[in-house]
Design the sequence.
């Protein structure tokens, strides 16, 4: 069995969770599937799967190799499609990453609509509050908030978000509206302890004003902090897209707008060149149009 075919067999074992089901779907005998995986392990010099009488577990090396196999086989399929003249038709699996809340609110609807338009495709939504390495983790497209470092990736600007201080109208009626960042010291603060959160709130276009807040309530997620603010319990600080519906409905209002930092840009990021396959080009074009039309980030 050649190396590429062995990779396909190994990937099917990983995806189905066992040798028996993989052999059934591939119309191969169980011993042939076992030999294919064993040949890969011998060639690589690492254990890819741990097989017991009841379960088949993927090792750490096996999990990484499975992602590599998936990417390599997809590249080969796309190259063959290009040679056959069908490269313009999106196909395969599309992996898109974004931060958790932005992904759920604004990226997931784009992915599902795109997949509806392209029935031959499948999608993976990788929503994480950390910077994902596009190449190492096999990601096709990333939606990034914030200033980007120089890289070999293509980045298309689609909008911006603001870091805002907000509270419920009922809270401000009872406690008054802070006029300057220093006035926050006299108010009840709700702070998020999620990724990238800080108790030093910076203000000003050059971030020249720093206020160290002393929260009465710490929340592990932005959603919880927003809920506490919406209930009129205190003031919090989040990104503008996270409270779009609350602002439209009047359940929250922003304050200290004249002291805000420069807005944070939003980009659609993807590898250029050969990796910009039909599925990536099609999704990027679709996502850029949708995000630029999204009034929550424009």
Sequence:
């Amino acid at each position: 069995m050649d190396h590429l075919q062995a990779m396909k067999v190994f990937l099917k074992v990983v995806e189905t969770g066992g040798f028996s089901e993989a052999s059934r779907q591939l119309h191969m005998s169980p011993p042939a599937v076992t030999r294919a995986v064993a040949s890969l392990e011998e060639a690589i010099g690492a254990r890819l799967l741990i097989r017991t009488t009841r379960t088949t577990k993927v090792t750490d090396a096996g999990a990484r190799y499975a992602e590599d196999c998936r990417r390599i086989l997809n590249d080969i399929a796309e190259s063959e499609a290009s040679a056959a003249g069908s490269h313009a038709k999106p196909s395969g699996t599309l992996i898109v990453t974004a931060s958790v809340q932005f992904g759920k609110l604004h990226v997931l609807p784009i992915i599902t609509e795109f997949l509806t338009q392209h029935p031959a495709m499948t999608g993976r939504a990788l929503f994480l509050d950390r910077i994902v390495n596009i190449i190492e983790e096999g990601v096709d497209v990333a939606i990034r908030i914030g200033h980007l470092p120089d890289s070999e990736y293509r980045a298309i600007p689609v909008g911006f978000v603001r870091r805002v201080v907000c509270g419920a109208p009922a809270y401000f009626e009872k406690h008054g509206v802070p006029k300057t960042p220093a006035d926050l010291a006299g108010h009840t603060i709700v702070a998020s302890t999620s990724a990238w959160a800080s108790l030093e709130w910076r203000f000003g276009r050059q971030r020249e004003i720093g206020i160290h807040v002393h929260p009465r309530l710490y929340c592990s997620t932005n959603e919880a902090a927003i809920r506490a603010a919406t209930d009129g319990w205190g003031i919090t600080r989040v990104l503008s897209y996270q409270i779009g519906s609350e602002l439209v409905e009047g359940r929250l209002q922003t304050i200290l707008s004249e002291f805000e930092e420069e807005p944070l840009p939003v980009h659609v990021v993807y590898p250029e060149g050969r990796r910009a396959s039909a599925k990536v080009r099609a999704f990027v074009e679709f996502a850029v149009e949708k995000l630029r039309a999204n009034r929550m980030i424009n």
